[in-house]
Design brief:
Blueprint (H helix, E strand, L loop, with lengths): L2 E5 L2 E4 L4 E8 L7 E7 L5 E7 L6 E3 L7 E6 L4 E6 L8 E8 L5 H5 L10 E2 L3 E6 L1
Parallel strand pairs: 2-11
Antiparallel strand pairs: 1-3, 3-8, 4-5, 4-9, 5-6, 7-8, 9-10, 9-11
C-alpha cells in the first residue's frame, strides 16, 4: 500500500530556510507526479508546488515563486521542497501528494477540494515561521 511520509518541518525565523522531504513507500516515486500543499489555520488547502514524473515540468504558486524549489530523486523515492526567504505567512501544515496521472502539473496544484480524494496524501509536517 502506498504511503507518503513528510519530514523536515519545524520552527524558523523570518528569512530563514527549511527543506521538506517526502518519502514514498509501497510504490515507486517515478510513477507519480508529486505536489506540495499547505493549509494554514482557518484557511483552505493551497497548492504550493508540483513536479512531473521526469522533473522537466514544475509549477509554483505565485506566493512562493522565486523562494521555493521543488525537486525529486526517484532513486531515493524522495521528493523535496527547499524553502528559502521564509515569511510568517508561510506558516502552515505542509503535505505532499502523489498523483499517478495528472492532466497537467498546474492542474494538480490547482485542483479543487472535491478532487482531493482522487490522489494520495501524507500526514503533513508543521512549518512555523516567527517574526
Amino acid at each position: 500500500q502506498l504511503q507518503l511520509v513528510e519530514s523536515g518541518g519545524g520552527l524558523v525565523q523570518s528569512g530563514g530556510s527549511l527543506r521538506l522531504s517526502c518519502t514514498i513507500s509501497g510504490a515507486s516515486l517515478a510513477d507519480y507526479a508529486i505536489g506540495w500543499f499547505r493549509q494554514a489555520p482557518g484557511k483552505g488547502r493551497e497548492g504550493v508546488s508540483c513536479i512531473g514524473k521526469r522533473t522537466d515540468a514544475t509549477y509554483y504558486a505565485d506566493s512562493v515563486s522565486g523562494r521555493f524549489t521543488i525537486s525529486r530523486d526517484n532513486s531515493k523515492n524522495t521528493a523535496y521542497l527547499q524553502m528559502d526567504s521564509l515569511k510568517p505567512g508561510d506558516t502552515a501544515v505542509y503535505s505532499c501528494a502523489a498523483d499517478p496521472q495528472p492532466f497537467t502539473i498546474q492542474d494538480m496544484c490547482t485542483m479543487s477540494a472535491a478532487d482531493y480524494d482522487s490522489i494520495y496524501w501524507g500526514q503533513g509536517t508543521q512549518v512555523t515561521v516567527s517574526t
